[in-house]
């Protein structure tokens, strides 16, 4: 994979090369067979390689492969819409390529709904802190996950606002009942409406069960009914994001069906398990109230995508839902979920660093904490989870479980076809890895840190491409120094090279934390650092190789020594034995 031209999610860690996926397993090029414990990110619903879905896709390709939704309808999209509307009690459906597109569409749908009702002043959206709704700028702006948002903060709308999540483990007070907690959150939402102006709020967005950010976090009983009451009182729409938790994942077709709502949400978003991994597909469902405004108004939704209502994607999803029904997989998901809850609690709840086990159906999370009594979290620098997940496939969730920065959890969301024996294997594997991590991490890091850093320091100091001699004629402050294509003064030169190197140093540091004992990978990363910082250095427009080597050696040596100095600081974040 070193020669890959794909810009993978990480340029430091090579992804595993899958050569086959069948049933509940993924097969790798190196011969390993991995149990799929999370369906990617809760995507695989009916298992891999189902021949019925493959046959339906081939049949669709032989009839209608693609027609533009601006001019044509197709039978697969019509039948899929009928299926979803019948199950949900909604009125219409829009089909797009993925969850982020669906959230963008839901934002625009809510806005246009109020325009159709002659209420253009409704421009504000309220979502929850520690939420995740998608990766495009609009969807990411709606989120309140600190780490994911950080690089793009200048681009987010000021019309997105946030209230507290319903996260009982971290934020429900010790003396609060569920009813008291719900009332406090409802009062907070009401206060936010009043702060913004009740008639300026377009919609309230929430994940019915929070997925990757806080880890399969269901609301306490009565929460969504209370949120619905606030929205209805002020004429705002309730939008539920079920991209991860919908389409049977919780043991019902829709996760909101567990919440005791008297009617469906105004808008609902589905994804991931809808296509089951066989096709990229997501859906936006809307209620009669919403579609009625459009029918009485413009009669058109000002939104559209090239692959909207794609016939092949819709046909695949239609077959996935058909298989769920014919094989009883949604009820099986519920029953397997009860079994999974039981064994997770039996095998992991007493662990010193397991803080909370939560979820519903086949959508569960285990949260790891540093101190069980105080609920103190692991800081983001520890990367505790990276050292747990090795030889089976499970989703690590987003860093920053409780506050968007700190905390760790794993997310268990296997295919609905998983057996009880496979669930036992998965939980036992997690238990073994977690116990190993907690009992050996400190001694492992003590041993490996100095070995690793000495090897890297030696590699840096004695690498043939790095000169150990000082430059004979130091660069004068009045000289023009060029690094790559950028011209800098001598004083800026170190700063600029430092910034470039720090990017690599962060990756080096992350690889160290995450791998712990992987010497070969660390040495490879160190070599990459040296190669990538070999930029052309010129003095007064003439190449100056020794200046480049001096700067490079100085920076790498300083960075390595700095890492050595952080050992004691790092050890305090390691689990105690």
TrEMBL record:
The protein's name in its UniProt record: Insulin-like domain-containing protein
GO cellular component, one term: cytosol
Domain Insulin-like: 512-574
Keyword annotations: Pyridoxal phosphate
InterPro entries: Aminotrans_3, Insulin-like, Insulin-like_sf, Insulin_CS, PyrdxlP-dep_Trfase, PyrdxlP-dep_Trfase_major, PyrdxlP-dep_Trfase_small
Record organism: Adineta ricciae
Family: Belongs to the insulin family. Belongs to the class-III pyridoxal-phosphate-dependent aminotransferase family.
Lineage: Eukaryota, Metazoa, Spiralia, Gnathifera, Rotifera
PANTHER family named in the record: AMINOTRANSFERASE (PTHR43094), AMINOTRANSFERASE CLASS-III (PTHR43094:SF1)
GO molecular function per UniProt: hormone activity; pyridoxal phosphate binding; transaminase activity
